[in-house]
Amino acid sequence: MRAAVAHGPGDVRVDHRPDPVPGEGEVVVAMEWGGICGSDVAYWRHGSSGTAALRHPLVLGHEVAGRVAALGPGVTGIEVGRPVTVHPAEPVGPEPLPERLAGRTNLHARVRYYGSAAFDPHTDGGFSELRAVRADQLRPLPDGVSTRRGALAEPLAVALHAVHRAGDVSGRTVLVNGTGPIGALVVAAAKHRGAARVIAADPADPALRIAERLGADEVRRLGAGEPLPQDVELVFEASGAPGALGPVLRATARGGTLVQVGNLPGAPAPAALGDLVTREITWLGSYRFVDEITDALAALRDGLDVDPLITHTFALDDAAEALAVAADPASGKVLLHLGAPPV
Fold first, then answer.
1. Can you tell me the distance from the alpha carbon of 253 to that of 264, in angstroms, rounded to the nearest whole number?
2. 100-116 pLDDT, tens per residue?
3. CA–CA distance, 22 with 153 (Å, rounded to integer)
4. Mean pLDDT across the stretch 317-333?
5. pLDDT digits (tens, 9 = 90+) for 297-314
6. What is the CATH T-level fold of the domain 159-285, as seen in this structure?
7. Residue 342: pLDDT band with limits 50, 70, 90
8. Are 339 and 30 in contact (CB under 8 A)?
9. Helices 38-46/319-326 angle, 10° precision
10. Quick one: how far is CA 316 from the chain centroid?
11. Cβ neighbours of residue 94 under 8 Å, at least 6 residues apart?
12. CATH: 3.90.180.10, 3.60.20.10, 3.40.50.80, 2.40.50.100. Which one for 2-152+306-337?
């Protein structure tokens, strides 16, 4: 089989690897579509993502969907040919979560994630023609949800988790700062969960146009004389830029809530945080998701249209070119077609 493999900075190749054989409790999925995430771009650009650095070649990709191709021993309740996506997280080790974190499986101390170099050996991702998958990580696609849209269930789950962290958004005004793919999906998720008005802010026109198509009621082009609004009770910071924190805190209403969904750097970085204290802002982190991927599939089934997010598609053999396009801030979600050429 072919797979998109990161070998080091600037070195992504389409390698040939042995076809997987499903073990006990596993299935083999014939992958059809994969969405490129910022972590995939980071491995391609730098040979690392955050503190996770490549020690060996790594198959990229954790936003994937395809069809079950073979069942391993002990697998029941799933049929060959079933379209599925994959929950890409697997907690490591026997240690249970402390009681205060019950149910928050995204906060296990050690989690293997598809397409991640956090552990040695690394956890290969799903940018391959075939992938052996634990059956309990499968999420069947509802009728009417294509594998192309199913590949967006994982990032939509990240957005839904962020909205869930904010509490009930119905009838409320929301600001989303940063409308790359995750921020744009936060716009869609907030509207889906009943937000009355969503304001989207970003320096890039193409990103704002996508946010509008995903439901933003108002857009602010930052750096073009359009400041952030003031006194917004509920704010999502999705850019991950430390320099944005001061203005975003100032935009948050006194006593309001700021949900940090954009990944901040792991190294020291200057940021103006004084308003966090003087305005008594509640600042919440949002990390990956628990099982909101199931909620994402239900939202897609119920008509949430994420197609405006998709701006480019590439064949698997063009993975390096696809990563370069995905690195351009003017791009939305870039998809790889992982199977046979689409007809």
1. 22
2. 999 999 999 999 999 99
3. 24
4. 96
5. 999 999 999 999 999 999
6. Rossmann fold (3.40.50)
7. very low
8. yes
9. 110
10. 20
11. none
12. 3.90.180.10
